């Protein structure tokens, strides 16, 4: 009987121990309540006041600068070095009567550019000065004859027929017709000695003309 009581007590003690463990069990952690985040009020965009446009004051009117035209390059040629030997050959030509009157026409420009022929004509007349075979028609006589035909004193006759017509007007027996042709940077000088009465060419020659530095 004592054993029975003892077994009963053991069962009761075990039940009490189990009951105490259940009662001491940890209560579940309370769920944290999520509070809503209050919305921030929208800040209005600051209004920038419009700055009125100030009309620009008209500045001083700039006067356009006058365009200065470029000075054309003046070419200079060594006419004398070419004309002297040519004139020497012409004076030795057959059919030339010493003492005859010679009309020297102005040198004509037949090149591909602008050419100052006054210097060439002056050099040609200089090469014939004191030649001992021809009497030259003076520049004054030639100018007067041109005016009688309605030509400018500076006008080059330009053709053999005009040159012969002028020569007859001044009672010349010979005409020296000359022109510069080819490239204006290195032209070729051509001369022809003609009889006024028949228009026959009794001598012709040519030579290259070099520019001077």
Quickly list its features.
six-stranded mixed β-sheet; 5 helices; alpha/beta; Penicillin-binding protein activator LpoB; cell outer membrane; 213 residues; lipoprotein; Rossmann fold; single chain
Mean of residue pLDDT values: 79
Largest sheet descriptor = 6 strands, mixed
- Look at the structure and name the CATH superfamily of the domain at 79-87 and 105-208: ABC-type transport auxiliary lipoprotein component
State the CATH architecture of the domain at 79-87 and 105-208. Answer: 3-Layer(aba) Sandwich
Low-confidence residue ranges: none
Supply the CATH class of the domain at 79-87 and 105-208.
Answer: Alpha Beta
SSE string: HHEEHEHHEEE
- What is the CA-CA span between the terminal residues? 158 Å
Helix content: 25-40%
User: Which fold name corresponds to the CATH topology of the domain at 79-87 and 105-208?
Assistant: Rossmann fold
SS elements, strand count: 6
The number of helices is 5
Overall 3D geometry? rod-shaped
Which structural category do the helix and sheet elements fall into?
alpha/beta
- Determine Rg (CA atoms, Å): 61 Å
Keywords: Cell outer membrane, Cell shape, Lipoprotein, Membrane, Palmitate, Peptidoglycan synthesis, Signal
InterPro entries: LpoB (IPR014094)
Biased composition (Pro residues): 38-49, 55-69
Pfam families: LpoB
């Amino acid at each position: 009987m004592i054993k029975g009581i003892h077994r009963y007590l053991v069962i009761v003690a075990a039940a009490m121990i189990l009951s105490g463990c259940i009662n001491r069990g940890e209560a579940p952690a309370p769920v944290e309540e999520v509070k809503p985040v209050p919305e921030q009020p929208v800040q209005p965009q600051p209004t920038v006041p419009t700055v009125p446009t100030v009309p620009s004051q008209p500045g001083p009117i700039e006067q356009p600068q006058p365009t200065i035209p470029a000075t054309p390059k003046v070419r200079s040629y060594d006419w004398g070095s070419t004309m002297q030997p040519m004139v020497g050959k012409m004076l030795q030509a057959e059919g030339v009567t010493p003492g005859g009157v010679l009309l020297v026409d102005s040198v004509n420009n037949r090149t591909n550019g602008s050419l100052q022929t006054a210097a060439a004509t002056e050099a040609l007349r200089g090469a014939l000065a004191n030649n001992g075979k021809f009497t030259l028609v003076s520049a004054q006589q030639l100018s007067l004859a041109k005016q009688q035909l309605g030509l400018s004193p500076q006008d080059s006759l330009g053709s053999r027929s005009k040159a012969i017509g002028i020569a007859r007007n001044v009672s010349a027996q010979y005409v020296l017709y000359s022109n510069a042709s080819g490239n204006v940077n290195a032209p070729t000088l051509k001369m022809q000695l003609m009889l006024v009465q028949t228009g026959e060419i009794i001598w012709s020659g040519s030579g290259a003309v070099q520019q001077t530095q």
